[in-house]
UniProtKB/TrEMBL annotation:
It comes from the Eukaryota. It comes from Mycena pura. Keywords: ATP-binding, Kinase, Nucleotide-binding, Transferase. It holds the Pfam family Pkinase. This is Kinase-like domain-containing protein. GO terms for molecular function: ATP binding; protein serine/threonine kinase activity. Residues 13-231 form the Protein kinase domain. InterPro entries: Kinase-like_dom_sf (IPR011009), Prot_kinase_dom (IPR000719), Ser/Thr_kinase_AS (IPR008271), Ser/Thr_Kinases-Pseudokinases (IPR051681). The lineage of its organism: Eukaryota, Fungi, Dikarya, Basidiomycota, Agaricomycotina.
Length: 231
């Protein structure tokens, strides 16, 4: 799907309330009017604003720009396509992508027990391989960040904490979701409140992505990963 850039005036929001969300964003359903007049259903990612958001607006805009710069260059059948940015729906720009009707891969499997799980896993692996071959570390690979489109094709999404390897300005300290994190990303805070790793916070790598992928496979194949880790 083409990257349409600035979508000002071409996005309508269908929902008053979000149908999904993550750590710092809400997702709404909407429609995008293409240049040929055809309307397609889309997902609108809108940063969740706090009372003091204006104080941090510059940092939020920088974070959004990072995500756009990474996401828009990724074109693969197992990566959620980037449609563009809309600047007239919210105080901050919103990111627009195709709406995946089945939701994340966990919901898809629950609703379609006959689904070929091996094909889903191979598709996710193909998408992850593409990311790594293009120098991108996802940083937060988990079931909730793999959507399934109307054709049953898995698509990796959410590049908010991804980074481009060896490129200055594209590395951040966030290291993902705890149950999916590689052991080397975990750090211990002692009684004085200081990190056991004095130099810096750990950083995600292609290897930590592969660890997260292994736990994702375990969850797709059997039980929720949280239940397995706590048993």
């Amino acid at each position: 799907m083409d990257d349409y850039g600035d979508l000002r005036g071409r996005i309508t929001q269908d929902d008053q309330y979000p149908f999904a969300g993550g750590g710092n964003a809400n997702i709404y359903r909407g429609k995008f009017t293409r240049p040929d007049g055809r309307k397609i259903r889309v997902a609108i990612k809108m940063i969740r604003m706090s009372d003091d958001a204006s104080i941090h607006q510059e940092a939020l805009l920088k974070s959004l720009d990072r995500e756009v710069q990474i996401w828009r260059r990724l074109r693969h059948k197992n990566i959620l396509p980037f449609i563009g940015v809309c600047n007239d729906l919210a105080p901050l720009p919103v990111l627009v992508s195709p709406l995946c009707k089945f939701g994340h891969v966990g919901k898809y499997i629950n609703g379609h027990p006959e689904a070929n799980r091996s094909e889903l896993i191979l598709g996710i692996a193909s998408g992850l391989e593409f990311l790594h071959n293009n120098g991108v570390v996802h940083g937060d690979l988990k079931v909730q960040n793999v959507l399934v489109n109307k054709h049953g094709v898995p698509r990796i999404c959410d590049f908010g904490i991804s980074k481009i390897v060896n490129l200055r300005g594209f590395t951040i300290s966030n290291v993902g979701t705890a149950p999916y994190m590689a052991p080397e990303l975990l750090f211990v805070v002692d009684g004085l409140g200081t990190s056991s790793q004095e130099s810096s916070f750990p950083s995600t790598t292609t290897s930590s992505d592969v660890y997260s992928f292994a736990l994702l496979v375990l969850e797709v194949r059997s039980l929720p990963v949280h239940a397995i880790l706590c048993s």
